[in-house]
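Work Package 3 (structural annotation) set out to generate three-dimensional models for the target panel prioritized at the project kickoff. During this period the team completed the workflow that converts sequence records into C-alpha cells, so that structures can be stored uniformly alongside our sequence database. As a representative example, we reproduce one entry of 430 residues exactly as it appears in the project archive.
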Amino acid sequence: MFADRAKIIIRSGKGGDGHVSFRRELYVPNGGPDGGDGGRGGDVIFEVDEGQNTLGDYRHKRKFKAEDGEEGGKRRCHGGDGRDIVLKVPEGTVIMEAESRKVIADMSGDNKRQVVLKGGRGGKGNQHYATATMQVPKYAQPGQPAQELEVLLELKVIADVGLVGFPNVGKSTFLSRVTNAQPKIANYHFTTLSPNLGVVDTENGGFVIADIPGLIEGASEGVGLGHEFLRHIERTRVLVHIVDAASTEGRDPVDDIYKINKELEAYNPEIAARPQLIAANKIDCIFEDGEENPVDRLRAEFEPKGIKVYPVSAATGQGIRELLFGIRQLLDESPAERIVFEQEFFPEDVLITENLPYTVTKAEDDPHVFVVEGPKIEKMLGYTNLDSEKGFAFFQRFLKDGGILDELENAGIEEGDTVRMYGFDFDYYK
C-alpha cells in the first residue's frame, strides 16, 4: 500500500538535572560544592533517505522519542548526553504541525537534514552557585523539559511535469512508453492508486514526469481520494492534460479539461495558473465518420487560450516525440527553481504562548531593581542564547508578547531601572 501521509508524535529528550553534592575527603572537613551538570537531551532530527519513496515506516508506529540526558554526578562529573533520534523520510516530505497544518520543514532541495525539536539543556550542578556569601549552595538547576509535538508528514512528489486526467484516459500507458517506469496498466474504471514517477530523456534535456492518479469531480473538496492525489501536483512546473480524444467511453475531452481545471482552481489557484499542454490521446481509435475531428475541436477551443494541443497515441507511439519536445520547450520557458514550502511554524516559539506563572516584584534592598521570576522565565532563558542578535530579539518579543513589559510598567518601573532575571540584569528603556 502506497503511504504518502502519516501523523506521528515526536518528543525530544529532557535535559539531565544538575547534581547537589559536596567534597568529602580526608583532612578536608568542609569541602566545597562539587555537583556536576546534567547532560543534554537528544534532538529529534528528520533526514532524507534517497532509498525511500513512501512513508510506510510511520503507518504502524506513532510515537518517536529521543533519549533523556543523564543527571550530573558527584566530583563534578557531567551527565551523559541523550542520544538523538533520526527519522528517515523520502525526499519531498513536508513536515507540518498537525493541528494548524503550518509547515515546519520541507525535506527537499538542499534541505537533507533538519533538527525539528531540540533536546533540553542539562541543568547546572551546585558547583556553579557558590559565592562569597553562599559557600554551601544546596540548589542545582533542573534540566530543561522535553518538547513534544504532533506532526503531520505529507509526501509531495518532486517532478517537473504532472500528468492529469480522468481515470482510464491513458496516463499510465503514456508514462510507461516515455520512461522506464512500470505502472500497473489495465482497463481500470476507477484509478491508479499511487503516483508513478519516471525520467524522460530527450535530445534537448531530460525531466521528471509524474502520473498523478485520476481525478474525479469534487476532488478539491476531498471527494474520493481527491486531496490525497492533488497534493502531488503542488511541486510540478508544467501540467499535461491527457484526454481521451476518441471518446471511447463516451467522455467529452473538452468538458474533461474544463472540469479538471475547475478542480485545480478550487484546490489551489496558483497550480491552475501554471503552464499547460494537452495530449489528445487515443487518436488511433478515431475514425472518419463525417463529424468534426475531435483534435480540431480541442485546438479551436484551447489554442487561442495559449494551451497547445498535441495529438498522440500512447498505445502506438504516434506523436509522442513531438509532445515530449513541446514539454521540454515549455519547461525551458518556465521558472527553473524548485518549489519549496517555506517554514511557517517554529516549535521553539511555542514557548512564548505557554501559560506558566511568573511574578514581578521590587528588590527589598533597591527600589530601582525589579525581579522577574517563575518557571516561564527560567524556561525561556534556558532556551535562548542572549549573546546572539537573533536570540536577544526573541527574548524581547517574549517579554512583549508574554505581557511581562506591561506588568513591569504596572509595578512602576521607569527608564534606567534594572530588571533582574535569574542572574541576568537588564537596563529598562522604552
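Residues 183-193, 222-226, 351-355 have pLDDT under 50 and may be disordered.
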